[in-house]
Amino acid sequence: MPKKGLSLRGLIERTALCVIFALLCIPQSRAQVFSADAVKAAFLYRFASYVEWPAEAHGSPFVIAVVDAENVASQLDLLLPRVRLNGQPAQVRRISRASELDGVHILYISPNAFARSRALRSAAAKLPILLVTEDKRGIESGAVINFVETGRNVRFEVSLEASDRARLKIDSALLSVAARVERRPQAWAPCAPRCETRMASVEASVAR
Questions:
Q1: What digits encode the pLDDT tens for the residues 175-196?
Q2: How far apart are CA 50 and CA 86, in angstroms?
């Protein structure tokens, strides 16, 4: 979990903008603007620090699985061998089928793979997996986190309903920097529209 005294907003912004390049020893002067794929890889890495998995999902290594997003996977290939996530060694895994979900903690499905990944998404939603998508239908289709690109910025939205189904606990600090949070339906008003709270956005410069 985040250390006390640190601003999560500042931490995530620094991570999204710097962590890939800092860990790869690229001079800061060359890291002012960089790819969306590097930013998404950095976010996937940082999400692990603000999510609590159930006890049965604490196996080692910590696995971030990627579907049809080779550039994101390549960034993670460079990053993960140098770090530990939740106290465990970390690795990236390229997958395409539900049978490959064993041991996965975070699953990122690229926009190109979204339409043909229904079976994979359905299987992941039944497991304690942080399902991350990048599609306008991502949240309504069961994702816990969905990336949203607006102009030159990478942001994300969060579904607490989906996190509950996956038995994942999302730190409130992460929610505070989400572009949008889909709240749990009010128990006393089951027919009321879902509350969609707009929070402070996380913005990251993206090279086109």
A1: 999 999 998 775 433 333 333 3
A2: 10
Cβ within 8 Å of residue 44, ≥6 positions away: 64, 72, 76, 106, 108, 132
Strand-strand pairing, 169-170 and 34-35: unpaired
| Cα 174 from Cα 132, distance rounded (Å) | 14
CB atoms within 10 A of CB 41: 29
pTM: 0.76
Please check the confidence at residue 82 and state whether its pLDDT lies above 60. yes
**Nearest CA among 85, 87, 34 for reference residue 64:** 85
Output the six-digit token pair for 140. Answer: 């309504």
Cα 159–chain centre separation: 12
Sign of CA dihedral 136, 138, 141, 144: negative
Give the DSSP per-residue string, 74-133.
Answer: HHHHHHGGG-EETTEEEEEEE--SGGG-TTEEEEEE-HHHHTT-HHHHHHHHTTT-EEEE
CA distance linking residue 14 with residue 11, whole number of Å: 5
Assign a CATH topology to domain 8-207: Rossmann fold (3.40.50)
**Nearest in space to 51 (alpha carbons), one of 180, 186, 140, 175:** 175
